[in-house]
Structure formats: structure tokens, C-alpha cells
Amino acid sequence: MLTAGRTGKPDILIKVEGGYLPADVKNHLTLKRSKVKSAFISPLASPDERVDVRGWTAASTHRYEDGLQLAHYTRMLEACGYHPRP
User: Fold this and answer.
1) What is the pLDDT of residue 80?
2) How confident is the model at residue 27 (pLDDT cuts 50, 70, 90)?
3) CB-based contacts of 24, cutoff 8 Å, min separation 6
4) Which residues is 32 bridged to in the sheet?
5) Do the beta carbons of residue 83 and residue 10 sit within 8 Å?
6) Beta-carbon neighbour count of residue 77 at 10 Å?
7) Ordered DSSP codes for the chain
8) What is the distance between the alpha carbons of residues 79 and 11, in angstroms, rounded to a whole number?
9) d(CA 68, CA 70)
10) Between the CA of residue 70 and those of 11, 36, 57, 75, what are the distances in Å?
């Protein structure tokens, strides 16, 4: 897909009311076990839902690049009118 000077292809598009949300499959850990912390995740079936998973936290190696990649795909979807946000 080439839109507004951006190019790329998300691994997954999740259909939600009003459009799609991008998702990407990675072969590295994003969560690790933790005795005192928790993390928030969203199920694929309901990406607007926020689930608190106690006993897990973000992996020590922050995946900044993964976040940038999803932001890039989000901007692409917005530019072509397929993102649920106006």
C-alpha cells in the first residue's frame, strides 16, 4: 500500500466499527513475568477493551520501533479513510 508518501503492509487489519486497526506479529517478547506489576492488553476480538493482566509487565527491552511501526500504519489508514478515527 502506498498512501501519502508512506508505504508498508501491516500483518493484520482488525475490523472495528468505522474502519480498521493495524496489528503486527513479532517474534520477540513484549511482556515478562512480574510479581508486583501489571500490564494492559487488548484482545483481538475487542481492541477497544482494556484488560489488566496482573503478574505481567512490559519486557525490559522496550519495543519503541514496534510502536513507531504501528503509528506509521495508523497514519496510512487515516490517510486513505480506513481508520475509525476521523
Assistant:
1) 87
2) confident
3) 10, 11, 12, 66, 69, 70, 73
4) 57
5) no
6) 20
7) -EETTEE---SEEEEETTEEEEE---SS-SEEEEEEEEEEE--TT-TT--EEEEEEEE-SS--HHHHHHHHHHHHHHHHTT-SS--
8) 18
9) 5
10) 10, 28, 20, 9
Cα(83)–Cα(74) distance, integer angstroms: 7
End-to-end CA distance of the chain: 20
Asked if pLDDT for residue 63 goes beyond 90, the answer is no
The one-letter code for the residue type at 31 is L
pLDDT score at 4: 63
Q: What ranges do the domains of the chain cover?
A: 1-27+63-86, 29-62
Distance of CA 17 to the CA centre of its chain: 17
Query: What pLDDT shows up at residue 49?
Result: 86
Across 33-44, b (16+ Cβ under 10 Å) vs e yields eeeeeebeeeee
